[in-house]
Amino acid sequence: MCNDILKLLKIKDENIQVLKVEEDVEVRGQLSTVVYGTLSYTPKACMKCGCVNDGQIHKHGKRVSRLTLLKSQESNVYLNLAKERFKCLHCLKTFTAQTNIVDSNCFITNLVKLAIQDKLTRVQSEIDIANDCSVSPSTVKRCIHHISQSLIVKPSSGLPKHLSIDEFKSVKNVTTAMSFLFINNETNQIIDILEDRRIHKLKEYFYRFDRRERLAVKTVTADMYEPYINFIHEVFPNAILIFDRFHIVQHLNRELNKQRISIMNTCRYKSSTDYTKMKKHWKLFLSDRQDINSYEYFWSKSFKTYTTSRDILEYLLNLDQQLYDTYMLVHHLREALKQCDWLRFKETLMSVEKKHVSRGVWRVIRFYKKYEYILYSTIKHPKLNNGAIEGINNKIKLIKRVSYGYRNFNNFKARILIIFKLYQRRKKDSLLINNAA
Ligand SMILES: [Zn+2]
To answer: How far is the CA of 107 from the centre of ligand 1 (A)?
Structure first.
């Protein structure tokens, strides 16, 4: 029989000969293609006692095993391989012929195992991978377990100089339902995931690292979760703490929006048109001042006239003095942050009076004043933010969703680490070269 079939199946072992191929054979309830082959050679030595073959090793029957290969044309393919058995007359023991396409005592070929590993680095459910590779889901699980052993972070592997930390919604069994994640903020590589985000657990984890390593950490970027602040100062004494810019703006926006809603609700029974206007034009309050148009006139249904966005905003702000003051304050702070202008930010922060702003905004201002030094370092390090880690968080959500959720944290963690640590995006340069060629 022509051995081109071996080339198609990517079997490189020259000791294997194909006898025949049968189509539509029922294997495990599915119609599959079965390739029949033999494995035979003259062994150089006895595998049991190690003595050199001097004609005393005889053929001793055959053992057939059905090996799983990768799918071909959407059909499962199996290799029914009759392996030669040998008997050594020195030690009177028997052994089976070996091949490099499959490990001993194993029925899943190495090519299938590699394919599973490759598929595991993409966002895909484990059952889908099992179906694609014609193996059972527990084989895929075993594969995950095997790979994840090599991805465990050891304290000796050290810490990066720029850290970024965040948390994400984890599996149900986790005590706080939130898990902790930290990445290298320069390379955006995930470093490790911890099951529990409570401070005492975090300290327990990070104190395993050498003190010298912890002292070498230069910056830590975090969201504005207050318990983290003391924890970071304690565990990384030399690190500069940086707040994520997005969260700073988000805090301010949220409070401004809350105030708009409360003013809107007071208008509800006094003047229903103002209520509608405020409800309809909520976006104007939150967009950047420079983006608000003052020259394009359009017909406004609620104002019953031709008007511009700026006029509408001015009208709405003039309804309430406190709303106006809060609006100006929030936008001054946002602009200073955007322009990385520390002096302007600080002056604005210091000029705020409690009576001029709402209670919520005042709470935010008090928090900012308390941690003024962190805001200073945030403005001085414009390139360090939590953008990458928030992106990773988003992908973690997707992994969970695609797999219909996880019950066990360790399985979830292993899958995340495999996807983020092993997945290699094809480089654009090499693509260009290929296209040019
Ligand atoms: Zn022997």
So the answer is: 26
How far apart are the CA of 379 and the centre of ligand 1, in A? Answer: 75
Q: Rounded CA gap, 124 and 367, in Å?
A: 43
User: Residue type for 140, please?
Assistant: V
Looking at residue 423, the DSSP 8-state letter turns out to be: -
Ligand 1 centroid, distance to 388 Cα (angstroms): 60
Could you give the C-alpha distances from 143 to 121, 135, 179, 252, in angstroms and in order? 12, 11, 24, 47
Phi/psi-derived region of residue 339, left when phi > 0, alpha when psi is between -120 and 50, beta in every other case: alpha
| Domain residue ranges of the chain, discontinuous segments joined by + | 4-107, 155-244+385-405, 246-380
Q: Distance from the CA of 4 to the center of ligand 1, in angstroms?
A: 36
Q: How far is the CA of 363 from the centre of ligand 1 (A)?
A: 83
Q: What is the pLDDT along the chain (437 residues), one digit of tens a residue?
A: 567 888 888 888 889 999 999 999 998 888 999 999 999 999 999 999 888 988 889 999 999 999 999 998 889 999 999 999 999 999 999 999 999 999 888 899 999 999 999 999 999 999 999 999 999 999 999 999 988 888 888 888 888 999 999 989 988 888 888 899 999 988 888 899 998 888 999 999 999 988 888 999 999 999 888 888 989 999 999 999 999 888 889 988 999 899 889 888 888 888 788 888 888 888 888 888 888 888 888 888 888 889 888 888 888 888 888 888 888 899 999 999 898 889 998 988 888 888 888 888 888 889 989 998 999 999 888 888 888 899 999 999 999 999 888 888 888 999 999 998 887 666 655 555 555 44
Q: CATH homologous superfamily for 155-244+385-405?
A: Ribonuclease H-like superfamily/Ribonuclease H (3.30.420.10)
Q: How far is the CA of 420 from the centre of ligand 1 (A)?
A: 48
pTM over 0.85: no
Q: How far is CA 351 from the centre of its chain?
A: 42
